[in-house]
Amino acid sequence: SDHMENIYGYLMKYTNLVTGWQYRFFVLNNDAGLLEYFVNEQSRHLKPRGTLQLAGAVISPSDEDSHTFTVNAASGEQYKLRATDAKERQHWVSRLQICTQHHTEAIGKNNPPLKSRSFSLASQGSANSPGVQRRPSQNAVSFFSVGHHRLPTGKRVPIMQPDHLVDVREMMSQAEGQQRDLIRSIECLPVSGHLTSLDQDLLMLKATSMATMNCLNDCFHILQLQHASQQKGSLPAGTTISWLEPKISLPNHFKNGAAQNFPAEINKPASVREEQSIAEPCQLTREPEEINPDEELEDISDDKEDDLGAVEEQRSVILHLLSQLKLGMDLTRVVLPTFILEKRSLLEMYADFMSHPDLFIAITNGTTPEERMIRFVEYYLTSFHEGRKGAIAKKPYNPIIGETFHCSWRMPKSNVATDADSNFPARSPSEQVTLSKDTEGQAELDYYTVKFVAEQVSHHPPVSGFYAECVERKMCVNAHVWTKSKFLGMSIGVTMVGEGILSLLEHGEEYTFSLPCAYARSILTVPWVELGGKVNINCAKTGYSASINFHTKPFYGGKLHRVTGEVKQNMTNMVVCRVQGEWNSVLEFTYSNGETKYVDLTKLSVTRKRVRPLEKQGPFESRRLWQHVTESLRDGDIDKATEHKRALEERQRNEERLRAETETPWCTKYFLKEGDGWVYHKPLWKSVSAAQTQQTDTN
């Protein structure tokens, strides 16, 4: 019910370059669907300085900082606003989106867009068409100003006649045909010479003209809704419309008939959805394979992603792709061009986050709950630098459903920090504990082994599960991640939805954690990666928690890749450690006793993972599955890489259709669905629990 209440308060509004930002008092009128602002709260009873109708508006949080957002009205008017903090921005954005959806659906209910909205290439019009021979009253201003300003009481907005909309539709049909002719003319130009089809100005014209026509189509749809609303009059008293949470629709972005070089994946019948099949309880029908770490060899591949030339050469492809995307569009079902791909699967990228196994194993060596939490935070923050290969923002392969990746690390025991080796605050003798001797029977080994397995458990939505364990130290981590990517204009945002749990069985502790969002910035020039968002790490048993903020770069000034955080004891609310720095450079840890520790991520030793040779891998293991794509990318043969990638994707679609026709649910190999998450089928905590039970029975 609180969603329906009017809200008000001060926001900063950007006026112009001279005046800049000014505080104004804003009022969201949910009943009228209006956003009004006044000079201050005292002048609220006067006429508002400005008013925006929210029906058909677009509310867009800025991806440059956490405070700014814009309100783009259907009339074309825009308010650029700034809240005092991220929480207040989210409050305003959520309420504005809910109000906007409420009033947009209210006028669109029972009034679908005209069938002729999908324009035909043949209907280009002529000089004698009604669209050209307009009456003076049929100018563009009259069309686009209707209903966007409040009129004095007693005056009625003139009702737009149906023939006016027909004329507009015909004019837009003509513009659509001319725009297609323009694209066809550009694409028919030679690839070399004075004026070529790859001319940067022409490519920009091609991209912006397509985006302009998409925008005009949306505006025309809004005009249709307004006309229907005015014809029907206002909603009768007592009419109620359900208030919904904000959502972004997935528009058909290829409706204008542009060449589909990168088509969206083939839509499945509405009755057949992968989400339904993965939600059904299912036993493992494919026998899990036990990987012998002794068969794995140290990885010698070194695929650095630092080639910037390919991006410049393929700029035309990026421009063409951008011309078909819309702000906020979900990119899950959009096939992206091959040249932006890394030479590894997303599943292997998750493994690369474990490239400092010494820090991972050292977590359980902490002698107190406080120290173990701090060690986990240190390991967590050092994992992202190696997980991202190179400075350029390339994208790992989208895993095929059923794809798996296995690897392991061997870490000399002498390299793993004990309490005596650490820079953490000294503990009193009463706090010292003796670690259990759990490596009995393995004394002949002078190294620890960390084993890793990942599996793509779902295709739509794309969900990956991964699990790692160190049996000798009785510790394991289980996680599932759903990657949601959206187009944000000149950047792409990826939200990592899911949760991970680190289990320290020696101490009976579980640490839950989440992952930050990732952004690919400057996608038209040299794209680069940025992390953003707040993540939390919690241990319910000990009462310690950590709050970590990955800061995105502000629009003006500020540092790149900045991260801050703190570890505290929840019961006393006492901060025991603070951290600041850059997640890909130097981190500074400051402890409650005044000591400071610096970690230079660029100088941390990286332990190479061990992977089975290709000939010993199964057909659905990542490196063998994508080997031809990877080889083609290494050779710089983008066309060949695209062919191999398309063949894999087509095979996946065919298998998906076959499962749909036979009503056969997909069954995973290593992970099982438990509630909203996915859990490894044979986690370490089960075997340890079973061993303890057996020992108790024996005694």
From TrEMBL:
<dbReference type="Pfam" id="PF01237">
    <property type="entry name" value="Oxysterol_BP"/>
</dbReference>
<dbReference type="GO" id="GO:0006869">
    <property type="term" value="P:lipid transport"/>
</dbReference>
<dbReference type="InterPro" id="IPR011993">
    <property type="entry name" value="PH-like_dom_sf"/>
</dbReference>
<comment type="subunit">
    <text>Heterodimer with OSBPL9.</text>
</comment>
<keyword id="KW-0007">Acetylation</keyword>
<dbReference type="GO" id="GO:0032934">
    <property type="term" value="F:sterol binding"/>
</dbReference>
<keyword id="KW-0813">Transport</keyword>
<dbReference type="InterPro" id="IPR037239">
    <property type="entry name" value="OSBP_sf"/>
</dbReference>
<keyword id="KW-0967">Endosome</keyword>
<keyword id="KW-0446">Lipid-binding</keyword>
<keyword id="KW-0333">Golgi apparatus</keyword>
<dbReference type="GO" id="GO:0005829">
    <property type="term" value="C:cytosol"/>
</dbReference>
<dbReference type="InterPro" id="IPR018494">
    <property type="entry name" value="Oxysterol-bd_CS"/>
</dbReference>
<feature type="region of interest" description="Disordered">
    <location>
        <begin position="638"/>
        <end position="658"/>
    </location>
</feature>
<comment type="function">
    <text>Plays a role in regulating ADIPOQ and FABP4 levels in differentiating adipocytes and is also involved in regulation of adipocyte triglyceride storage. Weakly binds 25-hydroxycholesterol. Interacts with OSBPL9 to function as lipid transfer proteins.</text>
</comment>
<dbReference type="GO" id="GO:0005768">
    <property type="term" value="C:endosome"/>
</dbReference>
<feature type="domain" description="PH">
    <location>
        <begin position="4"/>
        <end position="101"/>
    </location>
</feature>
<protein>
    <recommendedName>
        <fullName>Oxysterol-binding protein</fullName>
    </recommendedName>
</protein>
<keyword id="KW-0445">Lipid transport</keyword>
<feature type="region of interest" description="Disordered">
    <location>
        <begin position="104"/>
        <end position="137"/>
    </location>
</feature>
<dbReference type="InterPro" id="IPR000648">
    <property type="entry name" value="Oxysterol-bd"/>
</dbReference>
<comment type="similarity">
    <text>Belongs to the OSBP family.</text>
</comment>
<dbReference type="InterPro" id="IPR001849">
    <property type="entry name" value="PH_domain"/>
</dbReference>
<keyword id="KW-0472">Membrane</keyword>
<feature type="compositionally biased region" description="Polar residues">
    <location>
        <begin position="117"/>
        <end position="137"/>
    </location>
</feature>
<dbReference type="GO" id="GO:0016020">
    <property type="term" value="C:membrane"/>
</dbReference>
<dbReference type="GO" id="GO:0005794">
    <property type="term" value="C:Golgi apparatus"/>
</dbReference>
<dbReference type="Pfam" id="PF00169">
    <property type="entry name" value="PH"/>
</dbReference>
